[in-house]
Amino acid sequence: MVGNDIKYIDFHCHCDLLPGFDNGSLKLDREVAAVAVTTTPLAWPKNVEESKRIIGMIPALGMHPQLIGSRFNDHYSFSKYIQYASIVGEIGLDGSTAFKENLAAQEMVLSEILELCAENSKTKILSIHSLRAETRLTRLLQQKISTNSLTPVMHWFTGSVTQASKLLDIGAKFSFNHKMIRTKSGQNLLSHIPKEAVLIETDLPFTSKIFDSALHKTLLKETTVKIATHLNMHHEEFSDSILQNSTELLATTFK
Q: What residues does a divalent metal cation 2 bind to (predicted)?
């Protein structure tokens, strides 16, 4: 699944929203692999097809919580594809002002998705959105994740250290991006996460006004360097460590 040339694995990237995806010209740097999260299960077939062409692209089956209000019926397609998906994302809850009115519907959909994942015999990685709904989401994950076959990866987590600790207790990992690691809250969270549970992401295209494959790699390298500096580790040592974390996690599901 991950070639020998790979140095960075982006655990949360919206490849289908990047320039060049629709016309077939998108390429990733040869040293980069990316978990290509989707915002609706209807995007899954196209992402799977493009992943055969785009070296390093790993498709994920998602239903973004911000779309539950406007595209609720999309989630019914999840059951059609779940058996084929090794990575599920982007899924989760969003309690920010624009979306908090449909939190109950979001929670219902997420609960159904988690049950589908648990019922399916395949080990899965879950890329999870939790903006301003961390307590509610943590409680739901504690209820639904009772097996080692599901590994939550908390995308751009902005909750408390206490909430993070509860998530670590159920085996969660945390993916950090270049914007997150520049903030005091992101740095504080990093200080409380075991390095074995640290992954990197970009959340492109939402974190940069431009995109090309060289920039993509640069952002991942920048995040790695900043995390290493914060943890008082040598960049190369930490880069090897985080790549090992990433490849070992992917190996649990791509057998």
A: 129, 155
Question: What is the pLDDT averaged over residues 173-178?
Answer: 98
User: 230 labelled as ligand-binding?
Assistant: no
Non-local (6+) Cβ contacts of 159 within 8 A are 130, 134, 135, 138
pLDDT of residue 148: 77
pLDDT in tens, 10-43: 999 999 999 999 999 999 999 999 999 999 999 9
Q: Is residue 144 part of a domain?
A: yes
CATH code of 87's domain: 3.20.20.140
- Is 234 annotated to bind ligand? no
- Does 101 show up as a binding residue in the annotation? no
- Asked, for residue 99, whether it belongs to a domain, the answer is yes
Q: Is 14 flagged in the annotation as binding?
A: yes
Question: Which pTM does this prediction carry?
Answer: 0.97
Residue 1 resides in a domain = no
